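2.7 Reproducibility. Because tokenized structures are sensitive to small changes in the input, we list the exact sequence used for glycogen phosphorylase, including any N-terminal residues retained from the expression construct. No trimming or masking was applied before prediction.
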Amino acid sequence: MRAIRRFTVRTSLPAGLADLDELAHNLRWSWHAPTRDLFARIDPALWDEVHGDPVALLGALRPERLAELAADPDVVAAVRAATADLHEYLEAPRWYQQRQASDPSLPAAIGYFSPEFGITAVLPQYSGGLGILAGDHLKSASDLGVPVIGVGLLYGAGYFKQSLTRDGWQQETYPLLDPDGMPLTLLREQDGTPAVVSIALPGDRTLHAHVWTATVGRVPLLLLDSDVPENDEAARKVTDRLYGGGGEHRLQQELLLGVGGVRALRVWSRLTGAPEPEVYHTNEGHAGFLGVERIRELVAGAGLGFDEALEAVRAATVFTTHTPVPAGIDRFETALVQQYFGGPNASPGVPVERVLALGAEDYPGGDPTVFNMAVMGLRLGGRANGVSLLHGEVSRGMFNGLWPGFDDVEVPITSVTNGVHAPTWVDRRLSDLASERLSGEEVAAGVGWLRPDAITDEELWGLRRTLRAQLVADARRRVRHSWAQRGASPAELGWVDEVLSPDVLTIGFARRVPTYKRLTLMLRDPERLRALLTHPERPVQLVIAGKSHPADDQGKRLIQQLVRFADDAGVRHRIVFLPNYDIAMAQTLYPGCDVWLNNPLRPLEACGTSGMKAALNGGLNLSILDGWWDEWFDGENGWAIPTADGVEDPDRRDDLEAAALYELIEHQVAPRFYDRDERGLPGRWLEMVRHTLATLGPKVQATRMVVDYVERLYAPAAVAGRALAGESGFAGARELAAWKGRVRTGWQHVRVDHVESGGVGEVPQVGDQLHVKAYVALGDLKPEDVEVQVVHGKVSESDELHGFAVDPLALADTYEGGRYAFAGDLVLDASGPFGYSVRVVPRHEGLASVAEVGLVANAG
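Resulting structure tokens (single pass, no recycling of outputs):
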């Protein structure tokens, strides 16, 4: 019989164990091994049964067992010690507080918006890299003491659980999640009723949401839930599943995330006394409507006009783009967005035309009928970044239409390379060994790994085998379970006990399965792969995982193709596909792999943090030079797969790059792994492992990433936001908006009339001084409104400037009719082809970039 209602009954803990509830509901346990040890000690068998979920453990304990534990003074003392340790972690000054003491520019709080957060497998609110990155961002912010407040949605069924049919086709199931059974707390008003956030919808409907709080160490994460009694049936389904719908359903999710998220922050601050964010960070375009809501707030509450509010919002907003693929950007029909922000749903002073203009693709090649969420994110973000150096470069080219007249290099999108949260992803055996043998300074700098007197080669290789064996055992368990789901009987599965080996070179590949990540590149030549897997002296084994979006049949066909190959009796002991890739699987998979494979179509991988997690565990990367690997591959930390750049035929390109992959594995990777010295150790391989741990270890940390965000983006955004807010009345925002309006109106009359140069002879030499004088017309604008610049550097045969520098020219003369002369000197400091040009750009101390206004007058 099917239950008509379902709820979770919470355990009433004895007084001596009451603190266990706090320990279970603060997700620090997910990366703090001693806290997990405490829960495991309570009931080891039950701990394994609930898959390491403290809330589920406490809910499953019998009252008699709780009474026994409460009567055990050692257990009570351990609970108190763990709670004291947590409180010290939460309250003691950390890196950020130490910085704040001497740097008042740091913001009091940062709102961090993301559609998904991957923190722990027991809170399945993530689908892939974007969510894992967001979870690692919050954890590292907590470790550093950065006052971030996360904002997301609570999905009733999370993403999906993946299984396979007998013929290898992906199947999705959506088990309903009970918030009361997860490490969440409902945000309540003073009278105990749930706090509610409401948004008007078309058709005189209203979308309501409750706010659940996940406590991520020191960081609160607010998750909005539309499955509440106040909603009609359709509105209750808005947060039914992550990326589960398209069109209007997706738009409503993003409306709730952006607009509802800002309103949830206001409720949070009102109820807790926490400071409201000074900086708002949009992790991808999904939450872009938060800027529209903040504009509405300022128009309604501070009496600002739309343009004035826009300047105040932009100054304090950071936008991070994560996709180098236009198809990965959410785009909605303009007419649909108009329904949500126009007509009866329009806010006074926030015209729907202005909202639509924020996401308009009004540039060459754009589609005038769609509303682009990434474009809106860039127009509302005073500071923007990609997630690796290469991705920043790709993004500048991808979005250059928003800044006409400027070369790609000046498009105001910088980069902060992603990082990963080491305490989450490094196997405990490795981190314990490092903390036991190396000083804190040696671990932080990485240099301790280069000391074989601290950790011997025998110990390091023995640990690597232990981690490989752990993966083999987990993979066998998962393969057996998968085949049982696919309909196999126990009698058919004896071969599973021989799947993989703890002594064979293990290559891992796990990620989402869009086409560009090329899951099946390894299958381009099946016989070549078969030979690598079954080599008599140097065999290779592959552990593969990944989910395809439920609507992506092409991705599902790739999985099926891979699974069918792996099912073959001749290779199934050397290659496995593990269904339902999640955080729990990853925490065994990364440490157990000797090599991490990544073979996307370059340059379509924004960053690719899975290889970072493998590196932190001593794994070597085997990757296309894309994302972070393009930035940090040094020839000794793994291998770069050559790319067939310039080959237009995609099949031909795949063939060439697959052949290069086979060659590397056969002639470099496998021989080095199996080349053993007199001690039976692969000495050269271990040198690469040590080099990887020493050099990549410090770089790939999410703490490094968060520090970069604080210093390069959050602090400047906070300073800019305060400058425009002023002491009161947003005088700075009003002045900047008025100035931009005046400049835009008058720019049609700005031009470079004539440029003169002198000071160098017929044969210019290094060290010569070039004098440049430019005569410009400014119309009604004043010299202080602009900067006249000489742009100079090396030139190509077509006279294109590359790697140029920019120097300002000084006002030299004033003439009638708004005409001026500007002049300056350049020292020729490099030999070779040299060129220069002159341009006029707007200048104002409130601009974050020379390209911000999108106006430039170049010399003809």
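Residues 457-485 form the longest helix (29 residues).
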